[in-house]
């Protein structure tokens, strides 16, 4: 199974790219393999001109088509994803909505986090606010379980509830148990 981590930030490093890297690391700890694609690394002229003959553009479009799962992280500007990400998504089949056009068989709950909930420390790396950490972990668990089921494998047995209570970074709840607070809802 292949997971594509798709970054839509025009800047590196960024909060969304750091969160995407964190998600990839957590998925790897569960035995999954992933590849990264930051749209900002694609040749700008080829991207804007939708030059399918450009080797980097062709590889990027093929990576999306071949992925079993795609995790997208993007900054939100004026209630929408970045223009850079939109330019890339426009290279894909006609958008009816975006994720359906990508061939998504299941779309998991989106997770919205603001910069104050994602704190970067040079020595310690990314630190997530507790509610966001719980939602991210629940999303990782949901995706991981879905991938194991898709492969016809049994997902690993989760740690006992008392072990999860001892380690606050591993919540024993699902995304359905982590409702959005209205102030954190994405448009």
Care to give the gist of this entry?
With about 190 residues, the chain is of the alpha/beta class. The protein is built from seven helices and seven strands; from the N terminus they run E-H-E-H-H-E-E-E-H-H-E-E-H-H.
Secondary structure elements and pairings:
Elements: E1 2-7, H1 15-29, E2 33-38, H2 44-48, H3 55-66, E3 69-73, E4 76-77, E5 80-81, H4 83-89, H5 98-101, E6 118-121, E7 125-128, H6 130-150, H7 161-166
Parallel strand pairs: 1-2, 1-3
Antiparallel strand pairs: 4-5, 6-7
How would you describe what is shown here?
The protein is of the alpha/beta class and about 190 residues long. Helix content is about 35%, strand content about 15%. It has seven helices and seven strands; from the N terminus they run βαβααβββααββαα. It has helices at about 15-30, 45-50, 55-65, 85-90, 100, 130-150, 160-165, and strands spanning about 1-5, 35-40, 70-75, 75, 80, 120, 125-130. The strands form three sheets. It has a three-stranded parallel β-sheet with strand order 2-1-3, sandwiched between helices. A two-stranded antiparallel sheet has the order 4-5. β1, α1 and β2 (about 35-40) form a beta-alpha-beta unit. The longest helix has 21 residues, at about 130-150. The protein is globular, with a radius of gyration of 17 Å.
The number of helices is: 7
Q: What is the percentage of strand-forming residues?
A: 15-25%
Number of strands: 7
On the 0 to 100 scale, the average pLDDT is 79
**What structural class is derived from the secondary structure elements?**
alpha/beta
Major sheet description: 3 strands, parallel
Radius of gyration, in Å, reads 17 Å
Share of helix among residues?
25-40%
Described by the principal axes of the CA atoms, the overall outline is globular
- Poorly predicted regions are 161-187
């Amino acid at each position: 199974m292949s997971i594509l981590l798709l970054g839509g930030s025009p800047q590196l490093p960024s909060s969304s790219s750091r969160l995407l890297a964190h998600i990839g690391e957590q998925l790897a700890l569960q035995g999954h393999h992933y590849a990264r694609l930051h749209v900002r690394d694609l040749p700008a002229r080829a991207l804007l001109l939708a030059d399918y003959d450009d080797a980097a553009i062709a590889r990027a479009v093929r990576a999306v088509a071949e992925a079993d799962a795609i995790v997208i992280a993007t900054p939100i500007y004026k209630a929408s994803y970045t223009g850079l990400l939109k330019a890339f998504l426009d290279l894909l089949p006609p958008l009816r909505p975006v994720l359906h056009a990508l061939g998504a068989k299941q779309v998991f709950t989106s997770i919205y986090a603001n910069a104050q909930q994602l704190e970067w420390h040079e020595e310690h790396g990314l630190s997530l606010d507790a509610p966001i950490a719980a939602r991210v972990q629940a999303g990782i668990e949901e995706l991981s379980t879905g991938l194991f089921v898709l492969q016809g494998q049994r997902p690993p047995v989760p740690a006992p509830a008392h072990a999860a209570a001892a380690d606050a970074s591993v919540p024993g709840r699902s995304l359905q148990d982590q409702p959005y607070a209205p102030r954190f809802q994405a448009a």
